[in-house]
Structures are given as C-alpha cells and as structure tokens.
Write a structure and sequence with these properties.
mainly alpha, two-stranded antiparallel sheet, 7 helices, 6% strand, elongated
Length: 158
C-alpha cells in the first residue's frame, strides 16, 4: 500500500517538477514572439517565466506586436487582452462595450477602491450609470460648473 502511494505521488510530482524546472529559466526577451497558448494551461509557461517582470514583458510584447494588441490566455480559459492601440480601446470601451465585460474577479479586486461606481460596473448597471453621468457632463452643466470654480478661485483668492 505504501509503495503504491509513493509511486502515485512520484507520478504526480515528477511531471510537475519537470514543468517548473523547464519553465523557470530566463525570461523571454524582446526578440521573442507573442506567448504561445496551450489547451487547458493557456499561456501559463510564458506567464511563469516572466512573473518577476510582467510589466516590462507586457511592454515589450506591445512594442513588438504589429497591432499594439495581444491576448494572454490564462489557465482554464480566462483571457486577458492587452492593448496600446487607440482604435482598439475605442472599440472596446465605446463601440462594442457589452462584449468586453470586466468580470466578477475584477470587480472584487477593485471593490474597495472603486466601489460600485461606473468604473467597476458591467452590463445594465454600467449603462444606467453611464446615462446618469452623461447628464452631469453635458455642455451646459459643465460650463456652469467651470464658471463657478473659476469665480470661486478668482474672488476667494483675493
């Protein structure tokens, strides 16, 4: 019984150890291509290699990407889209916003900082808050606000 348990443990740990050792080498350089994606594990090998310098790695990938946009597939099907392309940002935030949901994990992480406001909302909640905010930022109310601030700054500073 003990020998079978030891064998089973070895069969599980050896591939895991191989995987960790194989992918814990040097991070990818700027000459590398976009990260490969594999079934089930996604781009985990590239993410693991570059875990210590993720921001610099993402920046290099953006600079080397012809469209200044790429996606990183996380394990179990989660996808992260990273872009520095203004046309893609416009598409994601204005033209086709409902397709690109932030998701529950994003909202939970930023709940304390953003609360339930427009920057942390999705779907109908975002649409409602967007319509509500658009009334506050129309030309007339914004002009009135700017006039009040300028008047206050000019006359209170004397």
């Amino acid at each position: 019984m003990f020998l079978e348990l030891l064998l089973l443990l070895a069969l599980f740990l050896l591939p895991l150890l191989f995987f960790i050792l194989k992918f814990s080498g040097k991070p990818e350089t700027s000459n590398s291509k976009l990260p490969k994606s594999y079934p089930i594990i996604g781009s985990f090998p590239a993410l693991y290699k570059n875990r210590a310098n993720k921001l610099a790695w993402y920046t290099e990938l953006l600079l080397n990407s012809p469209s200044a946009t790429f996606s990183v597939d996380h394990p179990l099907g989660h996808r992260l889209i990273i872009t520095a392309n203004p046309a893609v940002v416009h598409h994601m935030l204005k033209t086709n916003f409902p397709t690109y949901q932030k998701g529950q994990s994003f909202r939970q992480i930023l709940q304390e900082l953003l609360g339930d406001g427009i920057f942390n909302a999705d779907g109908d909640n975002w649409k409602f808050q967007s319509q509500l905010a658009s009334h506050e930022f129309n030309t007339k109310s914004l002009r009135k606000f700017v006039e009040q601030v300028v008047d206050t700054e000019l006359y209170d500073s004397e």
